[in-house]
Amino acid sequence: MSEMNEILLSLTQELRRGTIVLSVLSQLNEPQYGYTLVKNMEDKGVSVDTNTLYPLLRRLEKQEILISEWDTDGSKPRKYYKRTEFGDAVYLKLLQQWREMTDSMEKLLNN
Amino acid sequence: MSEMNEILLSLTQELRRGTIVLSVLSQLNEPQYGYTLVKNMEDKGVSVDTNTLYPLLRRLEKQEILISEWDTDGSKPRKYYKRTEFGDAVYLKLLQQWREMTDSMEKLLNN
């Protein structure tokens, strides 16, 4: 890998890292399994690794931003996640921060 | 600090962290002192701590993305930074990544 690509990869990962929680929260107004969540996000051009996603979902549940339930209807039990009321509030505030940040960035980038 | 504020502060910092390099690079097509850089960015609504900025400038210089020069005209010498040609290329690529990322985010957030 060239030095340029290496630097860019690291900077791009840094850019994306900060947006993962916002992305995930935006999708969990309705209950979703980890797997369908990854697929839905990918369809919209946002890829997230399951090795990042699963620990993140557990962390957000611990913080009471998400709540999980087991679906035992299928051949093997699956856990689905959705936002709590507290999670709705966190999501809306974080979305507002995102809007403010992208607005400021546009001012910087267009000068 | 309430739990909500604590969580939001941490998530917001995570959001901003990834954009610092892009912000800084966007301003350094022309040579700037660290101090004026901070002021100019603040005027556009992007605040960056000098404890974050100065090590970052040194790191980017080491990566040959920025070049620095000493101005010894004043009463005390001051260092100013600007993008190298390599830095121009890195900046343009990173800007493109930013555009792609914000586009995908908008798709996620507006669904």
SS-based class of chain A: alpha+beta
Tell me how many strands of chain A there are: 3
Shape of chain A: globular
Portion of residues in beta strands of chain A equals 5-15%
Helix content of chain A: 55-70%
Widest beta sheet: strand line-up of chain A: 1-3-2
**Can you count the helices of chain A?**
5
Examine the coordinates and then state which fold CATH places here, giving the name of the CATH topology of chain A.
Answer: Arc Repressor Mutant, subunit A
Gap between N and C termini of chain A, in Å?
33 Å
CATH architecture of chain A: Orthogonal Bundle
CATH class of chain A: Mainly Alpha
Characterize the main sheet of chain A.
Answer: 3 strands, antiparallel
The most extensive interface between chains reads: A-B, 40 and 40 residues
Describe this structure in words.
Two copies of one chain form a homodimer. With 111 residues, chain A is an alpha+beta fold. Chain A has a single domain, classed as Winged helix-like DNA-binding domain superfamily/Winged helix DNA-binding domain (Arc Repressor Mutant, subunit A, Orthogonal Bundle), CATH 1.10.10.10. Chain A contains five helices and three strands, in the order ααβααββα. The first copy, chain A, has helices spanning 3-17, 20-27, 34-43, 50-62, 85-109, and strands at residues 32-33, 66-71, 78-83. In chain A, a hairpin with a 6-residue loop joins strand 2 (66-71) and strand 3 (78-83). The radius of gyration of chain A is 16 Å and the shape is globular. In chain A, 26% of the residues are buried. Chain A binds chain B through residues 4, 7-8, 11-12, 14-19, 21-23, 26-27, 41, 44-46, 63, 65, 86, 89-90, 93-95, 97-98, 100-105, 107-109, 111, and chain B through 4, 7-8, 11-12, 14-19, 21-23, 26-27, 41, 44-46, 63, 65, 86, 89-90, 93-95, 97-98, 100-105, 107-109, 111.
